[in-house]
Specification:
Elements (H helix, E strand, L loop, with lengths): L2 E5 L12 E4 L8 E4 L14 E4 L2 H10 L4 E4 L4 H10 L4 E5 H7 L6 E3 L13 E5 L1
Parallel strand pairs: 4-5, 4-6
Antiparallel strand pairs: 1-8, 2-8, 3-6, 3-7
């Protein structure tokens, strides 16, 4: 293998000696988004609602904004996580907007403001790593 495409947020700041960061294509939105099949937002979802996220960073930020919500870990690819909203009793999930955009999914969501929900460094960008 001569190159690989990664999410920039997952690439270490120091690469192995035989690897280079060859390219970073135009960055997508770094925002996180709130997805609910009942078209709720983080502001108006009912107290005690279960919110799924795969990120400790997002969990802490959700609890800081809405300590009355229950945050549960959620795993799987983006499409699987969206299905789990109804199938596994989540009221909503929070994930990266760029993932939805790249997959071309037709999903209703509300943007979480970057001033309150800080994205992971590099979120929204891809990294082409080559040797």
């Amino acid at each position: 293998m001569d190159f690989a495409v990664h999410s920039m947020k997952d690439v270490p700041s120091r690469l192995a000696e035989n690897l280079i960061l060859a390219c970073v294509p135009k960055r997508e939105s770094p925002n996180d988004v709130f997805i609910s099949t009942q078209e709720k937002t983080l502001e108006n979802i009912e107290s005690g609602a279960v919110i799924g996220t795969s990120s400790l960073r997002r969990a802490v930020q959700i609890k800081r904004k809405r300590p009355d919500l229950v945050v549960k870990p959620i795993r799987g690819n983006i499409e699987t996580r969206i299905k789990k909203i109804d199938e596994e009793n989540y009221n909503a999930i929070v994930l990266a907007k760029a993932g939805i955009s790249r997959l071309g999914l037709d999903v209703k969501f509300s943007n979480l403001p970057i001033g309150e929900f800080f994205p992971s460094p590099g979120q929204g960008a891809l990294a082409i790593v080559a040797r």
